Queue: 4 jobs
Job 1
Amino acid sequence: MTERSETPRPHSVWSAVPLAAFFALAGPVAVAGGLALAPLQALAGLLGAPFSGLWRGVKSAWPVLVLAAAFVGFAAASTLWSPFTPRSLEEAQGLKLALGVLAAALFCAAAGGSPRARALARAAGIAGAIVLLGLLAAEALADMPLNRMAQPDVGTGVLERNPGRGVAILVVMLFGAIGALAGGDWLERALWKGLLIGTVALSTQFNMAGNIGAFGVGLLAFMIAWQAPRFAVSALGLGLAAWVVAAPFVLGWLATQDTLAQSLPLSWQVRLDIWAYVAPRIAEAPWLGHGIDASRTITAMGHVGDLTFPQVPLHPHSAPLQVWYELGAVGAGLLAATLAAGGLMAGRALSQQPGAAAAACGGIAALAVLWSISYGAWQEWVIALCGIALALANAARR
């Protein structure tokens, strides 16, 4: 009997084609601030997800998916007791959160539909990171020509936020790219070293110190995971779960340290003042929280020196603190359980995949830093960035 070679099913390659298109657009979108990442990811996920084989993945990961669905469902339900009333579907944060998480999951599934799909997704992710690095380098060296052309009437301080977010996106994409390239031939080694050097240089630009911290923590997590894949992935999931639980206590304590605040730049003093205001108010609704987007309804003003600012500008600039304030101990517990279970399950799955484990740990650890000190819990582009990190890790599997 002659052994037949396996013929790839038609969707086995085509599932990654929408991802390739996504990464072709990711560079320009990221330089402009990344806000369009979420709708583009939703489209790529819907077009590329291998639906015929999706049920197998659902069955294998059902504990994590159930916990994630419970968290998202509880967040959406908290609209019922939130003081923030959505005036349109665009402001329906619970619905947008559910759609964003679903889109990120489908996008991640599309990256791993088959070996050939993973190869295409890897190549597209690497190319996207290279293009993004080049565009950001042009912005840094030539006083933001692309952003100034698009928004000629916006001041430098505000305009820097766009390429600053672009660098945050690059930092997360970097670890997926070098996870796929590390251990390769001389050209692949040259590519990942160039990406690494370029990203660390750009992390110091555009007045966003959080990008430097995200790069450093991500690189450390990447290196540990390359040597001990299962340990690092599991430890990251458990560590993030513990951080979600402890964040309001740690950040609340830090915010009361006057000597620390006085030694920090003004932007960090403002951040500490925001945390000092929000942390004690978690106790006003400790179990169920104040409701999703309740942070938007705070009208108090904060003061640091001669500077006056909204006490909570849309969100507390710390996602774990926001989860506690808006969803209480129930929401924080569900999120922590999701992260812990996800880390343990992914650790087992990637125990023999150092490249994929390193990509996952580097990207998620970097994103966790940014999520903890800079951005809101429900920002669509941040959820999309999580989908990018997981998709690149999925594609890095060999």
Job 2
Amino acid sequence: MLSLSGVPVGINGGAGRIGGNAFRVMIERPDLAFNLVAINDVGLDPANPARNFVQAKANDTTFGPWPCDMYVGSTPQTLMMLTRSGGHPVQITAEKNPANIPWGDLGVRGVAECTGVFRSRKTETKAGYDSHLDGGATCVALSAPAIDDVLTVVYGVHKTSLQGVPLLSGASCTSGSLAFMVRILLDHSTDWGLGSLDMTTVHAYTMGEQGLQDRPDHIRSGTRRMFAAGANIIPTTTGAAKTLPLVDGIGEDMKGISFTGTSLRVPVLSGSLTLLSAVLHHEPGMEEVLSECRHAAMGRFLGKFAVNESPMQSESGLPLVSSHIVKRPESAILDAEFCEKSGTLYRFPLWYGNEWGYVRRLCEALHEQAS
């Protein structure tokens, strides 16, 4: 919830898909008090950025209407939010270099770095996600896996206290879809005999890496992501197999466990599914595994991990398809109806809102980090 007495934060890339959803989450979460002071975005109309933001975000094709009324404030760079706590001004800047965004002058402590551009620390010739510290921020939460070594967090499975941590990565949406189920398997590794893991994510297409028409791509020359996202199933790689073993609270217990993965990009706007396969040498009954998942979903992972089934457990839950997942708050929803066991091989389908549940975990991490 936006509050002038909340944790003072800013968003770089605040008009993009992930940054815009972080903005929405900060408005909608009554349990998290944020004072969103400013957003930075070079893609908005430089002459009238607040008006352009209202035009673009008042109605979203995927996520629907903006969660509160908004309008242009006293200057073209001032965006006003009408929330339950009253009018809330948000300043808009358009700096290409994070070091030049005046976070310190604006009173911002924490920054959500949501552009997808700055995934490593700065060098002598190139800005990085840590450049926000040069602009006066005290901490940064990166909305992507970092290319370099940094604390990597899926909020809810992490063990390290985040308060005052200057830099962290929120991992990836696919890593988030896996983290809670993998944590459950790791917690019972001795009893169940966890041997290896493999995942395939069936992932909605994304704007930054794909186009709606076939296009030559000098950055990813020869890759299948050159072809039209809205008309193809596109096999590709996923960074989740590399990122998950780096996640705080997960990676230290994955040593010696083989983990592989791939991705299929499919023609949906949002809403994805990860199929996790696990070898459990001691062959626990599926009901035993599901019982532990239910316990975690109603306990320590409440609101972050769910099991889709009837409360009576004698029937399957509501029939889910990808559009049902778009604004689910959890990082993963285990679809119990389609869990399978074949000898030592177990398959767990995990739905996830790749642009929503992920952003909620990122905002939770930023709130603790900047508090």
Job 3
Amino acid sequence: MQRLLIVGYGDIARRVCDRLPPGIEARAVARRAAAHARVTPLVADLDRSDSLARAGGWADTVLHCAPPTPEGEADARTARLLVALERGAILPTRVAYISTSGVYGDCGGALVNETRPPRPQSARAKRRLDAERRLTDWCSRQGIALVVLRVPGIYAADRLPLDRLRAGTPVLEDAVDVYTNHIHADDLAMIVLRALEADAPAGVYNASDDSQITMGDWFDLVADRHGLTRPPRVSLAEAERRIPAGLLSFMRESRRLDNWRLKTFLDVHLAYPTVHDGVPHRVSSGSSFKAQSA
């Protein structure tokens, strides 16, 4: 990896850039200029094909972390990106795509590895699976190595559901609660960097930590470590009355991600193996936190 094209410049892309080895030239395609010393901005819009001309023909490696089209079940943004890349004088040799574990749909709490056929239930997950399939077909035709990272809930000290806890939004009672999966943002950035390396085996990986935790217990953990009231536990019927549909959709899916391939083939060693290691304790009334194992 000498020339890296980043498509979509958000928090994870920034964390990746913070960790880039010396000597790598990086450019970022985003609607607004990326503010990072290591990155040359390419202001463009994935919803406008005519703005993507400079995206192709330069990079040997592509990190695609832009969100899909906001509506429908197909990701037109990824389709436009692939057209732009194909029009370039040279093609990349490696692509890494940040997808979602939501492509598996509800698995009834089962342990899920990458061989499980995707059955997305939400439109947003269907768009991610569409992007995966477009990338797989295109990279296969072009002889390009593709790494797909199926990512669950991302958290960090500044990425916690504190507003939801303060609002008193309920969670499901134990009898109907669902398993949820997590990855610390810094660990995800490290995983992405590994996926971009030339010797990283191509394929699909569950980019999740080792946690085995229900959604209710996750919110209790965050509440306890920040001195907040634990959320009320309610039945599914009551949740349907009190929780917005978009948020409730996450409570209709239960699975436990198996990260064996991630740790075996990418040789990943997580800094925060579980959420108990990564969720910080509040140590003052200000903004200071410390990470501490439970």
Job 4
Amino acid sequence: MALQAILGAQEQADIAHIVKEHNSTINQGKNPQQNLGKDDFLKILITQLSYQDPTAPMEDKEFIAQMAQFSTLDQMTSMATDFSRLTQMLAGNEAVGALGKSVEVAAGEELIQGTVKAVTRGAVPAVLVNGTYYQWDQVTKVFEE
């Protein structure tokens, strides 16, 4: 018989609250992650090496395969970071290219048109249009007058 059929709505809510409180105590306020990073991989590998049977150590092939997986994970993490930086640079360069041109900016429900007078660079580039800075991703059109 399902637990929901036995317990009432209030009891289910109380149990869910108790479980959530217990989990937050165990996790010490940290949000659980769904992805393993290279630090997690190294911890697992070190634990595996620490607890292996000395009379039957890990085979060389297994160890080499795990090191190759770690190397691949490290390279993929590095590539993701590089792609993120590249995306930021491209957005910044695109915003700079709009300097002095007319743009259309979506600010909530309204569309604002004006000339880009200044550009800020960084993780989130912004353009100065009609005396107000807007994030570059709010720009919907760039055109020449």
